[in-house]
Design goal:
Blueprint (H helix, E strand, L loop, with lengths): L9 E3 L2 E11 L2 E10 L21 H15 L12 E4 L2 E8 L2 E7 L16 H15 L3
Antiparallel strand pairs: 1-2, 2-3, 4-5, 5-6
Length: 142
C-alpha cells in the first residue's frame, strides 16, 4: 500500500470508507479499503482493513462493497455525520469536530489510520485547520 486515498473517502452510516491501492496486476490497480468509525474502538470495524474480504478494480466499486458490508453488519446507529468536516492536505486526513464551543481534530498520516493529532483545543474550525496546515508545512520544509 502506497497511501490511503483520503480524497476518495466516503462517509456512510457512521463510518468513513477509505479506499487504497492494494496491489497492481498487469498494470491494473486492485483496490481495497479501510474503515474509521464515529464511535472509534467501540466498533469492531474501526481501523479494520477490508472486513468484507472482497476487492475491486475501481474505487467506486470498492466503496459499494464496503457499503454493502456495513449495511449487513452494522454494529451501531450513527448519531450524525462526524466525518462531514474532513479535509485532505498533503495526503493527510484532518477531521475537525466541534463540541461545547470548542474545536478539536483527528489527524491521520497518508499511510496509517493511527491518529497523530496533538492534544490541543481550538476556538474555531479555521483556527484548527490553519494550525495543522502550518505544522504540516513546517514538517515538510526539512
Amino acid at each position: 500500500m502506497n497511501r490511503l486515498l483520503y480524497e476518495n473517502s466516503v462517509s456512510y452510516q457512521g463510518y468513513l470508507i477509505i479506499p487504497f491501492v492494494f496491489s497492481k496486476v498487469d498494470n491494473y490497480e486492485i483496490y481495497s479499503y479501510k474503515l474509521l468509525a464515529e464511535i472509534g474502538h467501540k466498533s469492531r470495524f474501526h481501523g479494520s482493513e477490508n472486513p468484507a474480504a472482497m476487492y475491486s478494480n475501481t474505487v467506486a466499486n470498492i466503496v459499494d462493497i464496503a457499503k454493502e458490508h456495513i449495511d449487513i453488519n452494522i454494529d451501531f446507529v450513527s448519531q450524525g455525520d462526524v466525518f462531514q468536516s474532513r479535509y485532505v492536505y498533503r495526503h493527510n486526513l484532518i477531521i475537525v469536530y466541534q463540541k461545547n464551543g470548542r474545536c478539536y481534530y483527528d489527524h491521520y498520516a497518508p499511510d496509517s489510520l493511527t491518529n497523530i493529532a496533538a492534544p490541543k483545543l481550538f476556538s474555531s474550525p479555521d483556527e484548527c485547520l490553519n494550525w495543522v496546515q502550518k505544522g504540516l508545512e513546517g514538517r515538510n520544509k526539512s
